Amino acid sequence: MDLLRQRILKEGIVLDGNILKVDSFINHQIDPVLAYEIGLEFYKRFSDLKIDKVLTIETSGIAFALFTAYHFRVPLVFAKKHQGKNMLEDVYCSKVYSYTKEKEYTISVSCRYVYPGDRILLVDDFLANGQALLGLIDIAKQAGASVLGAGIVIEKGFQPGGKVLRNQGIRLESLVVIDSFKDRKIIFREDEK
Ligand code: G4P
User: Fold this and answer.
1) CA–CA separation, 156 and 161 (whole Å)
2) Atom of ligand 1 at shortest distance to CA of 18?
3) What is the 100 CA–ligand 1 centroid distance (Å)?
4) CA of 64 to the centre of ligand 1 (A)
5) Residue nearest (by alpha carbon) to ligand 1 atom 17
6) In 3-state terms, what secondary structure has residue 12?
7) If both were cysteines, with which of 39, 47, 50, 155 could 127 make a disulfide (CB 3.0 to 4.6 Å apart)?
8) Ligand 1 center from residue 39 Cα (angstroms)
9) What's the pLDDT tens digit per position in 73-113?
10) Which pLDDT does position 186 carry in this prediction?
11) Which ligand 1 atom sits closest to the C-alpha of 128?
12) What is the value of pTM for the model shown?
């Protein structure tokens, strides 16, 4: 997606540890026009599918998942990382290990919002090691729902998540794939052709 690529080149900052800082339009401040276009792009790429629900994980995936759900005219459900007092009902849970933060956390989704037979599209902002998406797939499985695809805004192609998910047969659509941060320069997959 050229619009996104240009924005990353203009505002993205490569930090130590192969982390791309995109706080000015994705992870802290969010550009609603870009988020709308991203949702539309996912809608176009998955328009051959009959989707019942979009599923993401809090926090940064929500904006992109919301616009995707808007275009499909279906609900957005986000997995919670913190169990609030108002979540006393039955929940599906999965443990997710974050390599970036070096800790394990539990994600949960109420049984009231994902049903057996639901056709689910996953959406998230980053795909790195893939642990967050694997957690969402686990929750869908527990609910008896099926995951028809996953839309990713930025895939870090040099980390294993993309391969792990594609090997599981997940239809993955990444709007940009970054192959490396060579001398802090962002190299997109197509650049290497
Ligand atoms: P995984 O989800 O693919 O397994 O990745 P990992 O455990 O390595 O990442 C943990 C968190 O860091 C995730 O967000 C993920 O989106 C984010 N992340 C990974 N690589 C980058 C990067 O290069 N740049 C940025 N900006 N984020 C990255 P999270 O903790 O769930 O955060 P949030 O959604 O609550 O904001």
Assistant:
1) 8
2) 23
3) 7
4) 15
5) 126
6) coil
7) 155
8) 19
9) 999 999 999 876 665 679 999 999 988 888 999 999 999 99
10) 96
11) 3
12) 0.94
Measured by CA distance, the residue closest to atom 21 of ligand 1 is 19
Q: Which amino acid is at 32?
A: P
Q: Tell me how far the alpha carbon of residue 137 lies from the centroid of ligand 1, in angstroms.
A: 17
What is the DSSP track for 58-120? TTTHHHHHHHHHHHHT--EEEEBSS--TT--S-EEEEEEEETTTTEEEEEEEETTTS-TT-EE
* Residue 169: predicted pLDDT: 96
Q: How far is the CA of 120 from the centre of ligand 1 (A)?
A: 21
* pLDDT reported for residue 39: 98
Question: Is there a contact between 155 and 129 (Cβ–Cβ < 8 Å)?
Answer: no
Residues flanking ligand 1, CB < 6 Å:
19-22, 27, 59-61, 98-101, 125-132, 156, 161
* β-strands 119-127, 53-57 pairing: parallel
Q: Which two tokens stand for residue 84?
A: 């609030």
pLDDT score for 193: 44
pLDDT at residue number 96: 95
Beta-carbon count within 10 A of 73 CB: 8
In this prediction, the residues of the chain whose per-residue pLDDT falls under 70 are: 84-88, 191-193
